[in-house]
User: Which sequence fits this backbone?
């Protein structure tokens, strides 16, 4: 009789442990799934941001902007008017 | 009643027997397909950066639109008409109609296939627009494609990514082709169930590995400068094309390399095949007078001439067999010394030098200068033009080779050889990639000195001669004031069907600066310039205008010459 009790006690304990572990496992799987989802979203955002930043720092784009602001190349600057020093006055 | 019950029970049992025993495998596989997927994990292709860490090539997600014919409910041509304005945003109705017609024809021709590719490289916006139309049978696959922030910058150096016969991405030409294995990475697969079950059941996984990133020696700003100047030069001198190569003399690294006409690697399929080929590594050309310094350096190294040696055949044209060799302007300079021969770019003077050197030694130096084999640059498609055996050389061949005609080499072979004059006599293998990185670890490429071909003294003598050639030569008018530049102009006639075309030339200038402690060696060539056929009037001013910008970029001060 005692052996039967022990058997059922161990069996029930194992079922409970299995249940708890399986539940933890499922929770972990759900969390991992959510994290992967987040990771994918963040990767997409990083990719978009990287491309945007590369577009904004591309030399062709900067050249267009420089032309828009009428910036001069250093070797084209021949007049002192372009130098910041030209605006300083002796006191 | 019992009989009906019995028949009904037998029918149910038979059906269960069929499902569970006879058709077990079939249903098992259907069920397996529904819950377990073998998912291929495609690696991301490695990115390419310049030495200053700016991206030249990145990846971006695009979408591939396909039709799954079992689910198509409408006429396929009508479907295409509905999505035409979205997938062909060019607004050119004629082109659109033609494309729709071709697609529809192909679809009906391949009707036995269920999967049919409609269009690649659609943006997320285009995908969303198509999805709102809610057309059954159309689906998308995400695909990672190349993105070039600098558009076609260094296109022929980088190459492009196309597809192989299996539809997998593959790099062609330039760096993309040469480093295909490093850039492509390894695909993996995952046999897993959908949703959260994949975390509980990850049987049979194969790890994937993203491609490695490449960091080039290329300087983005200098690349921009040379491309801008080369375009301007080609327009100004009405040339058919051209190339510029900027090399680090001590490292053999490629600082910038441009060739025109070029193409946009993002839309490579719209350009003819010949534009993909980088002329710097694959085009054999006769260098012309820019070759003279190499022959003279060999003669100095062999001590068959010295700075004081006088040319005793320079008083007029020289006759070799049935051929008569003249100077480029038919003006002769009797008793010229070596400095004057290079300054005047004197063909007859060079024949004198070559005759003193002799055929055997000259051919030895071709080998030592690495002109008979590939340089080994890390770009796909490099060639080495075939060379003649010593027994096939006649005296006139020796004479013409001394001024760079009758021999064929590639521009990269030539600049590698000429660079030895700038770096103290070393032939250094040219390199494009500085390091390869997987994000955690980096592998640096090594500098490879192939040989020490010239002594330091010979190089110093040549620097003196080449500096004088720039100061006193034909192109002196264009030289930036205050800078010591060692260089040589060249105008090579182009052989067509066994004869030289008088007006068709490749005009070049090669040089390094500052002459005593060079920061760069640069070759500029223009193909068939129309405003003038001479290198001194086209390639040389272009070289100087680029050099001027490089001096400013690097902050190299003038040394007070002039």
Assistant:
């Amino acid at each position: 009789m005692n052996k039967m009790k022990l058997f059922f006690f161990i069996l029930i304990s194992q079922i409970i442990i299995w249940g708890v572990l399986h539940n933890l496992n499922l929770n972990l799987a759900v969390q991992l799934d959510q994290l992967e989802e987040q990771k994918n979203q963040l990767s997409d955002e990083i990719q978009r941001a990287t491309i945007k930043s590369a577009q904004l720092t591309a030399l062709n784009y900067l050249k267009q902007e420089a032309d828009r602001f009428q910036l001069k190349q250093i070797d084209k600057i021949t007049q002192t008017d372009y130098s910041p020093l030209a605006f300083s006055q002796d006191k | 009643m019992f009989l009906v019950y019995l028949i009904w029970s037998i029918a149910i049992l038979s059906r269960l027997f069929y499902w569970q025993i006879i058709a077990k495998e079939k249903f098992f596989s259907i069920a397996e397909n529904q819950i377990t997927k073998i998912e291929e994990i495609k690696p991301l292709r490695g990115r390419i950066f310049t030495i200053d860490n700016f991206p030249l090539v990145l990846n971006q997600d695009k979408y591939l639109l396909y039709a799954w014919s079992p689910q198509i409910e409408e006429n396929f041509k009508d479907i295409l008409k509905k999505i035409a304005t979205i997938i062909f945003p060019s607004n050119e109705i004629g082109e659109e109609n033609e494309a729709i017609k071709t697609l529809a024809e192909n679809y009906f021709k391949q009707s036995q296939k269920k999967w049919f590719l409609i269009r690649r490289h659609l943006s997320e916006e285009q995908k969303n627009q198509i999805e709102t139309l809610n057309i059954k049978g159309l689906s998308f696959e995400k695909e990672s494609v190349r993105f070039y922030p600098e558009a076609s910058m260094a296109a022929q150096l980088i190459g492009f990514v196309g597809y192989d016969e299996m539809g997998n991405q593959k790099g062609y030409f330039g760096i993309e082709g040469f480093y295909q294995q490093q850039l492509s990475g390894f695909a993996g697969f995952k046999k897993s169930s959908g949703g959260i079950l994949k975390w509980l059941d990850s049987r049979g996984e194969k790890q994937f590995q993203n491609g490695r990133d490449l960091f080039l020696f290329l300087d983005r700003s200098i690349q921009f400068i040379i491309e801008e100047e080369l375009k301007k030069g080609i327009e100004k001198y009405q040339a058919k094309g051209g190339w510029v190569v900027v090399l680090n003399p001590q490292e053999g690294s490629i600082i910038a390399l441009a060739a025109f006409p070029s193409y946009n690697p993002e839309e490579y399929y719209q350009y003819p095949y010949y534009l993909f080929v980088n002329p710097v590594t694959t085009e054999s050309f006769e260098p012309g007078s820019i070759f003279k310094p190499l022959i003279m350096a060999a003669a100095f190294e062999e001590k068959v001439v010295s700075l004081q040696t006088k040319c005793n055949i320079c008083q007029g044209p020289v006759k070799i067999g049935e051929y008569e060799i003249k100077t480029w302007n038919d003006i002769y300079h009797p008793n010229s010394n070596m400095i004057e021969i290079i300054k005047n770019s004197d063909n007859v003077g060079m024949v004198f030098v070559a005759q003193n050197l002799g055929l055997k030694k000259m051919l030895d130096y071709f080998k030592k200068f690495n002109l008979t084999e590939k340089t080994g640059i890390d770009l796909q498609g490099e060639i080495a033009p075939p060379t003649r055996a010593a027994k096939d050389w006649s005296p006139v061949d020796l004479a013409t080779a001394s001024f760079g005609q009758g021999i064929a080499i590639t521009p990269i072979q030539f600049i590698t050889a000429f660079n030895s004059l700038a770096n103290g006599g070393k032939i250094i293998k040219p390199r494009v990639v500085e390091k390869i990185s997987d994000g955690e670890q980096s592998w640096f490429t090594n500098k490879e000195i192939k040989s020490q071909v010239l002594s330091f003294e010979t190089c110093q003598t040549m620097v003196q001669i080449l500096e004088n050639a720039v100061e006193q030569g034909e192109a002196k008018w264009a030289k930036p004031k205050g800078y010591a530049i060692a260089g040589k102009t060249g105008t090579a006639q182009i052989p067509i069907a066994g004869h030289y075309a008088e007006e068709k030339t490749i005009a070049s200038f090669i040089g390094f600066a500052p002459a005593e402690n060079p920061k760069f060696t640069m070759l500029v060539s223009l193909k068939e310039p129309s405003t003038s056929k001479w290198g001194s009037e086209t390639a040389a001013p272009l070289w100087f205008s680029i050099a001027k910008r490089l001096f400013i970029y690097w902050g190299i001060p003038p040394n007070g010459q002039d």
